[in-house]
Amino acid sequence: MEPDNKWPEGLPKMPESLWRGTTELPSFSRLAEDHATDIAIVGGGITGITAAYLLVQEGWKVTLLEGSELLSGTTGFTTAKITAQHGLIYSDLVKRFGEDNAIAYFRSNSESLEWIVQTAEKLGVSCGLEREDAYVYGNPDDKKTLKRLEAEFEAYRKLGLPGEWVDDVSLPMRIGGAIKLPGQARFHPLEYLKGLLQAFLDKGGIVYEHTTVSRDVENERGLTLFTERGRHRIKCRHAVSASHFPFYDGGEIYFARLHADRAYCLAFEPETGYEGGMYLSASEPRRSLRAVEWQGKRLVIAAGESHKAGQSGCTIKHYENLEVFAGELLGIRRIPYRWSTQDLVTVDQVPYIGKISADKEIYVATGFAKWGMTSGTLAARMIADQIQRKPGPYTELYDPSRFKANPGIKNFIAQNANVAKELITGKVAFPHKSIDDLGLDEGAIVRHDGKQVGAYKDSEGQVHLVDRTCTHMGCECEWNESERSWDCPCHGSRYTFDGEVIEGPATRPLVKPDL
Ligand SMILES: Cc1cc2nc3c(=O)[nH]c(=O)nc-3n(C[C@H](O)[C@H](O)[C@H](O)COP(=O)(O)OP(=O)(O)OC[C@H]3O[C@@H](n4cnc5c(N)ncnc54)[C@H](O)[C@@H]3O)c2cc1C
Ligand code: FES
């Protein structure tokens, strides 16, 4: 759909997140030899950097291993609201986990919010941290969602959460009601994490980038991890999987208990003012809004358009839909940034945090369902305590093995039926194009040498071919034209246009057929 409120510049041609576009991060070399440490942390997003910061303060030798560049995963592309209001969740939590656990969920996320605020203050990090009220609202004509919103507010009341029902918000739109949760926050996540990283380095912490850790682990006389490239050994006492998708599975079938959900963001300068507040619509289409200061101006980040990774077809339409929404709501002067990213969701919506299995000193943190600012921080704090044998109140709620006790079976079956469908439909796709049909900067599935392959013709006319078969478990990747990537519809692995891994579970590149 063409937005009807077009301004001259339109959407930025290439995706770039405001956070990554406005932060200079230090760079680190690749691990090129065997290495020994107390604690190996795999993954340099909010979870890994926070865990590294915490553990080095306690006197441990800590090594942070990042497969790509620090903060190039989901954390670099988030919307960075820091809140315990995770959409409509408390009424469901009461039903599935009971009132005590629902309260524990709220408390654990609220404590992490406060921990972030205090840590930014303690380290003197200037990261645009502002207190904001969070709102989840329903559209006035969407009776079904309004009923769910009322049930959610009832859960707030029952649990004693500090929410308030409001009939109006400061945005120029009609709502059917909203739950306001006061005293939440927003920040610039990369400036904040750069501060934690510096404190980690000051205490002797070690970082390697471009060092992907392989899924094979040895568990004799301590742990040994291996690098994917070079097979260098990392001997350690404890390992933390902060790699978004767990780098190590340990027979826990995480690929069947997680799915990747993608969403889109625009940072735009509005024509009218934006008073503040962080908003999330519970009605479809889901929309999220927050302010951010940029070059002396107030921009608004509008996000939404969620779908399962690799299962959308045309992806640029999602940006265009957000553009229409933002234009109709506040007017648009310009859009300096657009970006998209994905997060992992567990079958029961509650993250997996804790020790992977009794016999190995490996801890996992994943499944934050687009709420990893608080949940990733919580995971880092919990795991730092668990490694140091300090008992905590939330171990059971977030236990990564709880699936065995409480399968969330309906979602598990639906999710894996969806994977099976994608596996089959990808294999029987029939390409209608050949390489010659491709325009500049266009990608598609094409017929080549009697086979179907993935092809991208870049702006200079050079053609890049890939075998679309995902190196994780063999599903066929789809072309994502707005990011110029090959995305797997099964568990969310993504590859560059020429087949290098952007994010896992896959760790090996796509095979490149001959041109
Ligand atoms: C559109 C969108 C908006 C969001 N908005 C919010 C929000 O407003 N508030 C909120 O709380 N949350 C939000 N989230 C969620 C939040 O951004 C994520 O949950 C969080 O950033 C995840 O952090 P992480 O550290 O676990 O993973 P990541 O940031 O992805 O970091 C993992 C790192 O591990 C590395 N890695 C992976 N595999 C390996 C390997 N084998 N070896 C070495 N390194 C490896 C990756 O390269 C990556 O850098 C949002 C998510 C999305 C998708
Ligand atoms: S991510 Fe699992 S098959 Fe592609």
Question: Can you give a write-up of this model?
Answer:
This protein is an alpha+beta fold and 515 residues long. 27% of the residues lie in helices and 29% in strands. It is built from 11 helices and 27 strands. The protein has helices at 18-21, 46-57, 90-97, 99-122, 143-159, 189-202, 254-257, 316-330, 372-387, 395-398, 409-427; strands at 35-36, 39-42, 62-65, 81-82, 130-138, 164-166, 177-186, 206-208, 213-218, 223-227, 233-236, 238-241, 258-270, 278-281, 287-294, 297-308, 332-346, 352-355, 362-366, 433-434, 442-448, 451-457, 463-466, 478-480, 485-487, 494-496, 501-503. Strands 4, 5, 6, 7, 13, 14, 15, 16 and 17 form a 9-stranded mixed β-sheet that branches. The protein has a 6-stranded mixed β-sheet with strand order 8-3-2-12-19-18, covered by helices on one side. It has a 4-stranded mixed β-sheet with strand order 1-11-10-9, with no helix packed on it. The longest helix is centred in the N-terminal third of the chain and has 24 residues, at 99-122. Mean pLDDT is 93; it is low at 1-5. The structure holds flavin-adenine dinucleotide and FE2/S2 (inorganic) cluster. FE2/S2 (inorganic) cluster binds next to loops. Flavin-adenine dinucleotide binds next to helix 2, strand 13, strand 17 and helix 9. Keywords: 2Fe-2S, Disulfide bond, Iron, Iron-sulfur, Metal-binding. This is Glycine/D-amino acid oxidase-like deaminating enzyme/nitrite reductase/ring-hydroxylating ferredoxin subunit.
